[in-house]
Structures are given as C-alpha cells and as structure tokens.
Amino acid sequence: MNFSENLNSNQSEYELLLNYKQSLLRESILEIIIYCLLFVIGGCANLIVLCKLISTIPRSSQMNYLLKHLTVADIIVIFVTITIEIIWRLTISWNTGQLSCKFVLTMRIFGLYLSSMILICISIDRYFAFVFPFSFNNAKQRNKRLLISAYLSSIALSIPQAFVYHIERHPIFPGFTQCMSDNYFTSKWKERMYNVTSLCGMYFVPLIVIVFCYSNILYTLHSNGASRKINMYMYKRMLVYTYFLVHNDDSNLTSNRSHLVHRAKRKTLKVALTITFAFIVCWTPYAFVVIWFQFDEQSARNSHPLIQTFLFLFAVSSSVVNPFVHSRHLLTDLRFRRAHNLTSTETVKQNTSCKVTQV
What we know:
Layout: H1 2-55, H2 65-91, H3 97-131, H4 139-158, H5 160-164, E1 166-169, E2 177-180, H6 188-222, H7 224-229, H8 232-241, H9 257-295, H10 297-302, H11 305-326, H12 333-349
Antiparallel strand pairs: 1-2
Helix pairs in contact: 1-2, 1-11, 2-3, 2-11, 3-4, 3-6, 6-9, 8-9, 8-12, 9-11
C-alpha cells in the first residue's frame, strides 16, 4: 500500500513538473523564434564579413585589423551566447551540472564584454587616425596594445560569473534544477554593485569613449587648424582608412582638396552618428532593464514578461547590427579593393614623412 502511494505520489509530482516545464516553454516560444532569427541573420553576416576580411583584404591592412577581432567577438556572441539562450529556453531546466553552469555562463557574457571593448578600440584607433593623422606609423603597435587590453579586461570582467552562478533546486519541484545567481550575494548592495559594474563595462564606458572619440573627430575636421595642416594625400588615406570612400567612384580620388575636405566632414558626421546611434539603440534598453531591476525590483518583476524579454534581447542584437554598421564597405568589396590598392600604390610612391601643405 505504501509502495503504491509513493508511486502515485512520484507520478503526480512528475506530471506537475512536466506541466510546469511545458507552461514555461510555451511562454518562451516567441523568445526562441526571435533568438533564432538573430542567430541566422547575425551568423550569416558575421561569417561573410570574416571570410572577406581573411581572403580578400591584405592581412597587413591596419584598417581591418580591429574589424577582424570585432567580427570574432560578435561570432562568439552569436554562436555561444545566443545559442545558449535558445537551448536554455528549449530545455527550461539546467541538466548538465555545476561545472558546465559556471563555464557556460562565463562564456555567455565574455562575448558581450569583448564586443563592447573592441568597439572602444576601434573608436580610439579612428580618433588617432583623424586627430593625430601623422601617428599612423605607430598604429600597428597601438592596436595590438588596445586589443590585449580588451581581451584581458573582458576576461577579468567575465570570471566573476563563475562564482556568482551556481545550481539551485526549485523549492516545490526538487528535480527541477536551474543555473542562477540567486542566494549568492549576502546583501542587496553587493548584488547591486556587481550588476552596475558589469553594466559599466558593457555600456557606460564604451558609450563615453565612443561619444568622446567621434566628437573630437568631428571637431577636428570642422576646425580651421585641421584644414590647414592636413594635405590631400592624408585625407585620401584617412578616407580609405575609415571606410568612408566605399560608396564613391574611384574618380573622386582626384577631386580637389576643398571638395575632399568637405566630403570627409560630411561622411565622417554621417558614419559617426550611425555608429553612436546604433550602439545606443542596441544597448540602452538592456541598460534600462538592469537599472530598473536594481533600484525598483518589485515593479520590474510586475511588468509584462514580454517587455522584459524584448528589452533584454536588444543587448545581443548589437552583434547582429555591427557587421552592417562597421563592415558595410565589404558589401561593395570590389570597389573597396580598387580604392585600397590605389591608396597603397600612392603610399609606396610618396614619402611617409610627407610635408605639411597649406590647404
């Protein structure tokens, strides 16, 4: 009799757990569909960009050196972070143990950190290319140092995930395990400090650097000092270097200096605004949710689940948008290569210590 009761009790608990998982899965269907779309679009775009960067562009080209690493970081986000989100929502519970919980959750956030950090590197590189155009001889070493810093800081910011996340059992269904951060922090202020620090690494610091660098670039291009000191050859180099030449015909390379300066200003403004706007649109909703949960958790949890879902989705969408914002010149690869080869020929012909001319 006792055995029969235990069997019926186990069956009832199993059915309740199964129904509970199915209800969670039904709630996650829309999220899974959106993540799958992001996976397909972002995966294809980043792989195409990476293949073109490796096969069609000279490896010594500094203009694409950082882009390769940005694409790798975005591929990590697409094929690790987004894949984890899809599988996690399909399985609902975490069934692969404590070690995988810590490792996978660390890798899940590493790509996001790395993508943001390399955006910082690209902004600083472009800043030096425009504000200090004659420092291009040091660009290779500077970019290497920037990348090393980006990787090390991303690793340092990701490692705490291995300590914070752990396996927890459901209070009602002991057989239901989940990888989560609950019950790790001993006080609310510690959890808040950790989450705000993470948000600074992903959003606030990159945003400040991006706005600072591109604001100074625009100021430099629109100041009289820049027009007086930078000759036509240097503007050609800067245009190709910063990917602004690709939507123009090669004949524009022979334009007069005043037209070239005007074109540099116009295209720099357009691209600077595009890059800044794309970063803000992709990351601000996620930052808003994190801050909302830290300072008004009750109202945040009471909000509609779909609102939370869509706001969190914006964070990973940055890696889907990046190829179209930073690598769109590769979509017109033939024209870009002609412009790049022409500029490379000029570089051989002209002395790298070219004289400063009056514009």
